[in-house]
Amino acid sequence: MSNNWNEDPWDVVDVVPDPDLVSHGQTRGPSRSLVLIVVSAFLALVLIAGGGSLWYLRQVNPVGDPATAVNFTVAINDTLNNVSSRLEKQKIITSARVFRWYVGRKGGITFYPGYFLLKPHDHMGNIMAALNTPPEQTFTNVTFPEGFTLQQMASRLAEKVPRLDAANFLQQSKSGVVTSTFAPSGSTNLEGLLFPDTYQVSGDDTATRVLQRMAGLMERVGRQEGISQSEAKLGLSPYEVLIVASMIEREAKIDADRPKIARVIYNRLRRKMLLQIDATLLYNQDATKTMSELQKMDFPYNTYLYKGLPPTPIAQPGRASIRAALNPSPNPSAGDPLCVGLKTNEKCEYLYYVIADKDGGHVFAATLAQHEANIAKAKLAGVM
User: Fold this and answer.
1) Domains, the chain, ordered by start
2) Low-confidence ranges of the chain (pLDDT < 70)
3) How far apart are CA 317 and CA 247, in angstroms?
4) In 94-141, where does DSSP find H-type helix?
């Protein structure tokens, strides 16, 4: 580096002239504490707003799955205020105020008097949609299997549509308010006269209307199967055919057995033998009792004690059993193994049957000896 440096007057400043000193005063930013207060307040507002939004969302769409549907009634002249209050009181929603606000945002609601199935803690949109639908346009599918009794039908209906009380259904089914063309004169009991099927029960249906549809469908199915010609064909009234069909329904597990069971029943009736059908013993009886105990009890449905048909059907028969009752199998032909060994003047007819396998199939016999041998085989196979 060169030592030949020439200093300029401005390189060294020992004194700054007064004119160069201009006083601007002290410029100070916002205090730290004020900044913290503002930021904290802002964050608090954000948290409050976020918490409020979350709370609102939880009212509209509660956490978890909706509960089992319950019945809710809308009366004539109901308003949004009293409907929302009852919804909250019945714990279907958690906030009547939020429901009213939600309905307002979604364009309002028209209330129709009637019965509605609503799921507690469901999304408010689903509850609003259900209430906004006329009851006659809302349906619950209820299936009544073949072989159900009136008591079982009443319980199934009340289970699926809680507002339709089982006791009221039973009372209506025996009151005579609903009739069937197949019922004998003076009878008001609809046992065996209601067709087992899946029915759509609307929100404004009553027990009487459900019974009317069931009885009407049984009449239609019966006519389709030719039950109107039962007197000429079998010497039995349509009602008696339905009694036979109900016993077939409760006894048979596979379709192939139904016509043969029908033939056994008709053969025994013609011979004036006891029917001895176990299913009749169980009708309206204590299920804890053994078959041996039931056989000794004196009641009209004991076909081990009383000859002929029981007083009424013992269940609701399906189409297959009605068809079998109207079209029993022919008796075994002369060359059938069941007929071997019979006396020359002895008719070879189906007179006995017993369960034979774990699928519920039966084996049939023409003689008591054959029947007892079949029972022994069934016990050996562990199916009875």
Assistant:
1) 70-135 (3.30.1490.480), 139-224 (no CATH), 251-381 (no CATH)
2) 1-53, 55-56
3) 8
4) 96-105, 124-131
Cβ atoms of 179 and 141 within 8 Å: the answer is no
The strand ranges marked E within the chain are: 70-74, 114-118, 139-143, 198-202, 352-355, 362-365
Q: Which residue has the tokens 């009602």?
A: 239
Global confidence as pTM: 0.74
Amino acid at 27: T
Angle between helix axes 319-326 and 238-251 (nearest 10 degrees) is 120
pLDDT tens profile 206-239: 999 999 999 999 999 999 999 999 999 999 999 9
Q: Phi and psi for 133 in degrees, rounded to 5?
A: -110, 130
Per the CB < 8 A criterion, the answer to whether 144 and 211 are in contact is no
196, 281, 301, 307 from 298: Cα distances, Å: 30, 10, 9, 13
Residue 231 vs residues 47, 207, 266, 349: alpha-carbon distances, Å: 83, 33, 14, 22
Q: Which residue type sits at 195?
A: F
Q: Which residue has the tokens 């009547």?
A: 96
pLDDT per residue as tens digits for the range 85-130:
999 999 999 999 999 999 999 999 999 888 888 999 999 999 999 9
